[in-house]
Amino acid sequence: MFDFFLGLLSHDLGIDLGTANTLVYVKGKGIAIREPSVVARHRKTKKIVAIGREAKRMLGKTPQTIEAFRPLKDGVIADFDAAAAMLTHYIKLVHESPNPSIFPKIPRPRVVIGIPSGVTEVERRAVQEAAIMAGAREAILIEEPMAGAIGAGLPIQDSSGSFICDIGGGTSEIAVLSLGGIVVNRSIRIAGDEMDEAVTNFMRLKYSLLIGEQTAEAVKIAIGSAYPTEKVERQTVVRGRDIERGLPKSIRVNESEIREALAPTIHEIIEGISETIEETPPELVSDIVEHGIVLAGGGALIRGIDKLIANEMKMPVWVTDDPQTAVVRGCGKLLDDISLLRKINVAARKI
Fold first, then answer.
1. pTM of the model
2. Does 49 share its domain with 128?
């Protein structure tokens, strides 16, 4: 009963703690924060200089005294202190009292966090510790494919099978769901970051052009594709440093070149989908063939990736609405359905 009243007074949160981006859903209000998972801090004092978009603008541009980096790698916490500082910053942003003179202190929030399905017990505990340290009264962990399926509106509690592939920044989460649980799943650490790396390597090998992480991501977003979808190919200018001469260099690249660069990474994801289907019980496979594969996550925005997967797997494939927010929307829906949340969570910890 006491916990019920705390829930009324506090702003319970759903968080998609992603390798590339962190999204925060506030119960009753919707998505309040959508920021890059980047932190900038002083190397010696460890004082936080910037978080989110401001920190991302510093990537590759900092002096020796400041480091700008992602505190998460491959979907898990790589730098605990920085991750805790980032979570604390975002929780404070949405959880400060609107009128401190009347409500001097709002009770700590319950926080539902989406995590990769393949993380270890130690990695789960690190996420919970970071959330509690950031100000949560209770940290509840949900596997990302389950949260993404709920956000996409899939009938996860039905006896029919649902197939979701969530292509994030650090991991691709592939799962078959039925009767409120995960029947078969695969978490592969090949996703958006590897696509950026593929673009960087392509530029270096073909054009002797050295580009940074942000430039590679911008090229992927601008003209990246998995399948030829348009008659006229898009082009973009890429600027970097000539490896041979060490001078600035600009080149024009087209869509087919970037498609060639992304192909090996995308095919590894398709291979993961194929292996997951191979392990799926036959009765559920027939449901998947009927209903199709659902794509979520930022990687689902690569043009033509749904058509390529459909061609390879010989079954329907569709991209959910606003795929980047599917996981955080699923976490938000679970805040309104505590009984389902208690049923499907993989770990929960109160202070």
1. 0.89
2. yes
Structural tokens at position 311:
């061609």
Residues 13/330, Cβ–Cβ less than 8 Å: no
Q: At what angle do helices 326-335 and 144-151 cross, to 10 degrees?
A: 80
Token couple for 217 = 């991501």
Whether residues 196 and 268 share a domain: the answer is no
Task: Note down pLDDT in tens along the chain; length 351 residues.
Answer: 445 444 445 679 999 999 999 999 999 899 999 999 999 999 999 999 999 999 999 998 899 999 999 999 988 899 999 999 999 999 888 876 444 443 345 678 899 999 998 888 999 999 999 999 988 999 999 999 999 999 999 999 998 999 999 999 999 999 999 999 999 999 999 999 999 999 999 999 999 999 999 999 999 999 999 998 777 789 999 999 999 999 999 999 999 999 999 999 999 999 999 999 999 999 999 999 999 999 999 999 999 999 999 999 999 999 999 999 999 999 999 999 999 999 998 888 887
Separation of alpha carbons 120 and 77, rounded Å: 11
Instruction: Look up the CATH number of the domain holding residue 20.
Output: 3.30.420.40
> Rg for the chain (alpha carbons), in Å?
21
Domain that holds residue 117: 2-146+326-350
Counted domains in the chain: 3
The domain boundary, picked from 257, 284, 305, lies at: 257
The helix-helix angle for 255-278 and 213-223 (nearest 10°) equals 90
231 DSSP 8-state letter: S
Written as six digits, the tokens of 112 are 């539902």
Give CA separation, 302 vs 82, 102, 129, 139, 329, in Å.
Answer: 30, 48, 34, 33, 21
Question: Do the Cβ atoms of 308 and 266 come closer than 8 Å?
Answer: yes
CB 114 within 8 A of CB 318: no
> Do residue 48 and residue 161 come from a single domain?
no
| Structure tokens given for 305 | 């990736």
Helix (H), strand (E), coil (C) string for 148-195: HHHHCCCCCCCCCCEEEEEECCCCEEEEEEECCEEEEEEEECCCHHHH
